[in-house]
Amino acid sequence: MRINEIFEVIVVGGGHAGCEAALAAARMGVKTLMLNLYLDNTAMMPCNPSIGGPAKGHLVREIDALGGEMALAADTATQHLRWLNTSKGPAVRTLRAQCDPRIYSDHYRNVLLTTKNLFLHQAQATELIVEGGAVKGIKVRTGQTFWADAVILATGTYLASKIYIGLTAHKSGPLGMVAGTEFSRSLRKTGLELGRLRTDTTPRLHFDTINWDILDKQQSLSEPESFSHFGEKREHHGMFCGLTRTGVETHDAMRRYFDQSPLVQGALETEGPRYCPSIDDKVIKFPEKESHPIFLEPVSHLSREVYMQNFSTSMCIEAQIEAVKTIKGCENAHILRPGYAIEYDFVMPTQLEPWLEVKQFHNLFLAGQINGTSGYEEAGAQGLIAGINAAQRVQGKEPFVLGRDEAYIGVLIDDLVTKGTKEPYRMLTSRCEYRLILRHDNADLRLAEKGFEIGLLPETNMELLRDRWDRMEQERIRLSSVKISPSAAVNERLAAHGSSPLSEGLSVAELLLRPEISWSLAGELSESQLESDLGQRISVELKYEGYVKRQERQVEKFRRMEKLKFPENFDFAKVKGLSAEGRQKLTSVLPRTLGQASRISGIPPTDIQLLWVAIEQRRRTGEGGHSGT
Questions:
Q1: Among 31, 477, 512, 625, whose CB has the most other CB atoms within 10 angstroms?
Q2: Ramachandran category for residue 538: left, alpha or beta (phi over 0 → left; psi -120 to 50 → alpha)
Q3: Which helix (H) or strand (E) holds 387?
Q4: Under a CB-based contact definition with an 8 Å cutoff, are residues 238 and 291 in contact?
């Protein structure tokens, strides 16, 4: 790298969003520079040391299917792995991995340093260079300016960030890093609308000061598994999580220090994550609850640090010490790092196109917590899409957009750019209306061809998947032809699984339609040679085929709405009869399609009907507005 060297894409930030963005752009053949505040903290895990969980695990699988890195990094660093939501059905079933943060970070850093077309440089961004309505580059603290055809901002929670521990506050990024105050001021000067959010983290305890013997222990999976479609499935031994709870004494200890609580005293003026509230917030809002579950999660085999899942807090250190010691197993626990709240600036995401480019400027893309999200997985997913689209932009290609019917990633980004957010946005399975067809197990079928077509997924990986799909199809055909005849032995096996006996022959495919029949039994009865995970996929597809077809009909209706595009420079203010709120929100968001307009919060159905008529009138008069993707 030389001073004044021009790059095609610059990525600001080395967190989960920045890493995925930089790798995606470089892998697509674009000369890319990643500016990171501190290279040793690449892909840092400042909060919980885990990847996956409900909806988040779906995002990781989708990143992997498209050609991203997060699943491989997680598999490399996994120490403890579990399936979650197993009782709620295959649509929401997903993995959650406890990862060693250092191994996870090292994986990303090594891949970044060995990727063709990618250059890394440790520097603090201080100014966004904008000329003639387009972003041209980034100025850094040491005075240099780096020029590029496109810029991706993945600045995390560093923008004008401030740490709170009790009523004590100071400017700081996560875990004592430098706050990006100058860069935040630079963004405000461009005219972008910024807001402010908050997230909290937990105290970290010393492993040896916890009484593990009196706690229930949660062990890792007993069978080999992996996040990546392309990784080696492994078992993980030697690490467990401890299960405990807060109690009345815990809550009383916290209440004694409410006079020093920034939350109670109003020192915090920002919204925290509603779906992951701090323990002090729970004590305030749910006074009738006598206890809350706590998971004690060891951070690493090589560390004695333990993360207190569900115990994030902004309380003063005295309150944290006293409250922790009232928890079963933690009576003598030593706090290595106190919990804290961090407030930071973010950019209102309704200012973005569905491909994460800022509407106000050409060539500027945003990804991750700068868009108001929380979580490593949400950040990584946005980083991947921003990296893809920055590369598409400089190569003169069309934007890459995933629909709500194609991926959780599509739901995530559509929610952000259409509805915006006033709190840290977290991906939830309940946000996804097409859960049955967007499962953890079929992310490869949904997205791998797309990743391959844009040049992100390697051909060797694509060949591996195609071979896997062929074997699944052949096995599905075979299962339809293999007949199970009634016999005492067969009926005894069925009875053991709570299933009715056979009175006549039945194909294995037909047998699998019974909800209580597992793949393990069907595979054994049919003498299947297929891998267990692929057999389970076939079982899910057969059992839910009718429901899936019903959801696919809903998707068709959805797609018709998405095909009705508003013409360029469509003036929503001139559509007669629109409600005042609808006109204001439509003018602010500027939706691309009628479907997107229908999802804007507060837009009544009557406004959608009026817009539909307006599009049709424009189409008939030849003024634009067309059906097409």
A1: 512
A2: alpha
A3: helix 376-394
A4: no
pLDDT of residue 2: 72
Over residues 545-559, the pLDDT tens digits come to 999 999 999 999 888
Contact by Cβ (8 Å): 153, 165 = no
Q: Which of 280, 271, 278 is nearest to 372 (CA)?
A: 271
Provide the β-strand partners of residue 243: 216, 295
Strands 145-153 and 364-366, bridge-based pairing: parallel
Q: How many residues does the chain have?
A: 629
Does the global pTM surpass 0.90? yes
Residue type, 83: W
DSSP string of 161-193, one letter each residue: -EEEETTEEEE--GGGPPP-HHHHHHHHHTT--
Counting Cβ atoms within 10 Å, is residue 389 exposed (0-12), middle (13-18) or buried (19+)?
A: buried
Question: Rounded to whole angstroms, how far apart are CA atoms 99 and 103?
Answer: 8
CB of 114 closer than 8 Å to CB of 84: no
Gap between the Cα atoms of 133 and 17, Å rounded? 25
Q: Radius of gyration over alpha carbons of the chain, in Å? A: 26
DSSP secondary structure letter of residue 312 = -
**CA-wise closest residue to 404 among 542, 628, 561:** 561
The DSSP code sequence of 42-83 is TT---S-SEEE-TTHHHHHHHHHHHT-SHHHHHHHHEEEEEE
Q: Do 1 and 122 touch, CB atoms closer than 8 A?
A: no
For the chain, counts of helices (H) and of strands (E): 20, 22
Q: How confident is the model at residue 622 (pLDDT cuts 50, 70, 90)?
A: low
